[in-house]
Specification:
This protein is mostly helical and 176 residues long. The protein has one domain (13-174). The protein contains seven helices and two strands, in the order E-E-H-H-H-H-H-H-H. A two-stranded antiparallel sheet has the order 1-2. Helix 1 runs parallel beside helix 7 (157-174) and helix 3 runs antiparallel to helix 4. It is globular and about 40 Å long.
Amino acid sequence: MECRYKLTSFKISRLPLPLVIGTVGLLLAIAGNFFPDTLLQKWLYFFAGNVLLVSALMERAVYFIILEVIVVASTVIAFVPGHLILKAAVPLVMSAVAIPYLLSKEQYRNLASILGILGLVSLALGYALIHPLIYFLGGFFLAIYSFIAYFQGERIAILFAVLNTIFAATALLSMF
């Protein structure tokens, strides 16, 4: 009996390992939506962000690495007692640093990337202002960017497209 799976090309149901790992992160983040404003939600988002960061690192997906570093830092700061303004400063400053870096790279000087950057800024403002409309815009722009990136061949982007579509829909529903 021959083994079809080698450790160097580990796949489950023909899915690359980064997508399998990222799917776990996606499911953890979705689960976090079911426990709003709780310690459990913070932990689920923390673990989800780290797992998604690992999958983005494995794929060398620069934009999604930056996104998840901001998300993970924001989830860590959520555990720390302190003034909301100080907590909001972390994702805002990180986004402000990420934007010039992204724009310095030729591959991020296009309309899709501008939508991605708007998503980063909206995400950071969402953490700062804690307003559903801002969260919606962040999820919306991130989802659009992610779908475009996926159709341009960045396979890990599908996870972020699905996740941010869900986050945008959740934020939109919370406004009504």
